[in-house]
Amino acid sequence: MRELVFVGLGLEDENGISIQGLEEVKSAESVFIELYTNLMPNFSLNNFQNKSGKQINVLSRYELEEENGKIMLNAAKKGKTVFLVPGDPLIATTHITLRLEAKKRKIKTRIIHGTSIISAIMGLSGLHNYKFGKTVTIPLPYNFSETPYKVIIQNKKSGLHTLCLLDINKKKEQFLSINEALKLLENIEQQRKQKIITPNTIAVGLARVGSCTQIIKADRIKKLIEFNFGSPPQSLIFPGKLHFMEAEALVAFAGAPQELKEQRT
After folding, report:
1. Pairing outcome for strands 57-58 and 30-33
2. Is the alpha carbon torsion for 103, 116, 226, 260 positive or negative?
3. Distance CA 138, CA 203 (A)
4. What is the distance between the alpha carbons of residues 81 and 4, in angstroms, rounded to a whole number?
5. Which of 73, 80, 8 is nearest to 43 (CA)?
6. Region for 87 from its dihedrals, namely left if φ exceeds 0, alpha if ψ lies in -120 to 50, beta otherwise
7. Tens-digit pLDDT profile for residues 113-170
8. For residue 8, what is the enclosing H or E element?
9. Which domains does the chain possess?
10. What share of the chain is helix, strand, coil (3-state, %, to 5)?
């Protein structure tokens, strides 16, 4: 069967895959995995191979993006092939491109969804998912960009929350922290002077969402920037206009200042 099955791994370790996803792996002729689009803190390739009984082929960014997943698509032409992806399979645009390439080659594709970091963050924060605006990634310093600052402004003008994913370079073992991201945004604020990222701005920091050591902390930036969130992966939320239930959730579950409850919509 000419088939490529995209399977989500979830967020934390090899136990995050669904039962359906694991069954797909066990019945596949070839299995591939990428581990660069998102960080799974406690994922063990050896443990997963023991659990599934399959040899897992690790694909590099070059093989997926520059070579358009050629090695995996060739395997899919010969028989059922599974592609394992951190989180939910098609959140990264790279994987959508791969699915389109498979269609061009007349290879059938299916998707077995996994827990997405985006939905997990929204749920954990207590903020209403329909009140989030455009999501943005804050890049590492050497890829400096003012785009995140502009997106936060645009969303706030509409009363919407902004989810900021923090950049990672898995190959170089570089991971942007919440503290570093806030400092980068403060630097932009000093130049743009839009009063969007001020010491009193409320933000929400989240680290290792989905793990037993996850942290969620809401506070004013002047305090949040000094907070120790520990190891990656980490993310940021800049709330827009808060519904009273959202404000109550941030106070109750993220330790936000009590006065946040005074906000109403």
Report:
1. parallel
2. positive
3. 14
4. 5
5. 8
6. left
7. 999 999 999 999 999 999 999 999 999 998 889 999 999 999 999 999 999 999 988 7
8. strand 3-8
9. 3-112 (3.40.1010.10), 117-262 (3.30.950.10)
10. 40, 20, 40
